[in-house]
Input
Amino acid sequence: MSAIFAAKENSVEFLLVYYTGHTPEDRMQLERCLEQVRVRRLLCVIDCCCADEVRLILDKKDCSRVVLRSSERVAMASPMAGSRFTRYFLAGLRSARKCPCDDGVDCPRLKEFRDRSLVSGVVTLDNLFNYTAQHIQPQKPRKVFCSFDFQ
Output
């Protein structure tokens, strides 16, 4: 992973990071890589237990970011293989016709998500996160927006 961040002289305009992992060592490797890169816009999806504990270049004043976390500080992400957060997030990205939940094609959350996406013509990050979060409320997912003026 470190080689990827070094490839563009550690400076990029936009970076999408989708992290799903289980060990503190994995999280530390991600944090070290993010410390090395200069990025103006960051979209980071963190899907792991104690997702709030992952540090994401918070002290850099020239980086706008959206951070989606699958769980709050002490909450455990889904222990089953194939995270629930990722399962619903990807279903939304694929504009699924059948929800992964027990309601399947009759899921009211999926219907609301699809209706909103059809009105706007795109899958928005806010709509996608809300659809995902409604299915995994016990994990207490959260999103953080932080924007800076680039003059």
Observations:
- The first strand starts at residue 11 and ends at 20.
- The helical segments are 2-6, 24-36, 84-93, 108-120, 125-135.
- The mean pLDDT is 78.
- Residues 1 and 29 are 8 Å apart (CA to CA).
